[in-house]
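Crash report, auto-generated. Payload:
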Amino acid sequence: MPRSRIAVRPDEVLFRVGTGIFASILVVGVLAIGFELYRQSRLSIHEFGWQFWQTDTWDPVSGQFGARPFIWGTLYSSILAIVISTPIALGIAIYISELAPAWLSTPLVFLTELLAAIPSIVYGLWGVFVLVPAVRQLQAATPAALKSLPFFTGPPLGIGMLSAALILAIMIIPFSSSIAREVLRAVPQAQREGAYALGATRWEAIRMALFYARTGIVGAVMLGFGRALGETMAVTMVIGNTPRISWSLFAPQHTMSAVIANEFSEATSDLYLHSLIEIGLVLFVITLIINVISRLFIWSMGRQRRTRPRAEPVLKAAA
Amino acid sequence: MKLWKRASLAAGAVLVAGAALSAQGIINGAGATFPNPIYQKWFAEYNKLHGDVRINYQPVGSGGGIQQVSKRTVFFGATDGPMTNEQLLAADGKLLHFPTVLGGVVPIFNVPEVKSELKFTGPLLADIFLGKVTKWNDPAIAKVNAGVQLPASDIVVVHRSEGSGTTYIFADFLAKVSPEWKSKVGVNNALNWPAGIGSKGSDGVTGQVKSTPGAIGYTELTYALTNKIAFGAVENKAGKFVKASTDSVTAAAAAAATKMPADFRVSITNAEGDAAYPIASFTWLLLYESPADKAQAKSMVGFMNWALTDGQKFAPEMGYAPLPKAVVDLELKALEKIKTQ
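Recovered output after restart:
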């Protein structure tokens, strides 16, 4: 074995081993969480098997448990939140990094980051007292022609999918927008100058910067998505906590994290408790899958770029 | 230097005194949230009388209380619904139920057009919560509320989103008066609700009903009173419409006391008697017949003797109904079964 070029000094070894241990804590932690979730939910895994993912019934009285309405509610509310929040978050990021004068951009950055510091329960209270009544009026004013569409059926309760998606969108905007802003700032000035030199307008130069930063921007959106998937308190206060699959934005629905938070303390039978923990396992698996998909997506975008001669994969770290 | 010495001496004396005080340690309990306010009041008041008895209660929910006491991680448990036979068998020893106070569950509503009081029969409440009666001017509601102008608005059913003893009591009553409820929904802390929206906690349900026109929900009498929200009278088994009050809830227990089973696991919903409010229940404390720590057992029995007699006077002011004397007498006898040496 050829010895490494750097002489083996004790502090080097210590440094290497120390950081290695810290890095492995994370991996071991994730594996341990997965294993523990499995161990604590084996009763329901054994009882329902794959049926658990496909059943709509959640009946603690007869001991029938299925996760499908909760999976639906979590994915539907999070996707809606992404659809609502992405244009806004991107708009904020572009304005702050490209257009706003310095005296305006600093307070804007501060304010968006302040949004991220508000506790979820406060969002929930605001949702109950401000957002839900407003949404109820909006729903009551929905024209009859729209009401025949599957997205707008049901009585105007205020409480339901629309309120949940809106509150989630507001909660994830600061996350997506700050990452997107940083990514845009990391675009080399030379790129912009090059664009201007070629006669690009301001909008064209920004478009170029957006294209350059696209992997990072996708990463920013995925980070927001991940946060929306797990958000609990604010959602449970406005979504209506009803495990029923529906396309309607007006319908009360339920999410995975909300059902765990709601029912855990009073889950009296073992099978009930194990089913709730299996919901946690399902959420864990789904989050993992979504993370892998977004990684692959970002990775494939990075590969496309590498085939272009001039682009550098500077932004991979940011993604 | 001198001051330092004196200070450390004083600190030492305090430590020694503290150790003597807590020779038997703190008695730990966990369980239902519904009786938590009065339990905390009792433990504080009893501690004033008996400085050496310190009881710590964690309101983690009935389910959590049953689980913890079954594994003996706490000295006593508390629950709003009696333990099932399977749960009793799973426990680490023989557990005894002791009713401590009574609570009533009331149907609360928010119909801005209706200024007068509303009345409900049991089957009508069941049909509303089954989602079969969906308008406030439904003939079934109009029939029992003759003379009240009812609007044609939608009924919005609000129920608890988490498992709760309150839900258990409400469902227990509905199952007794409606065969359809019994077969379709059943009785439990958490249900597969056929209609409506779920809100977290008693405050959640109360707040939701208050802010949603056309809403109906159910909550403990205490919450309805403190939140000043309208609640309806409910028809009892004798055919009388009774509004919930600490008196009418105690009356329900008095009716049941004559047929009290030896283990006190009894449902008193839909009780007999003209004055009895039909949606009422005991809340129970769970104690082992043979506790591991005999010193704590002795203190706890002493506390229970006080809570069931003198302690009952705190109940009405806190919105709970006191136990009828007949039940207290039975319980005092049952307390003697607990082995304190």
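Post-recovery validation: Chain B touches chain A through 33 residues (CB under 8 Å).
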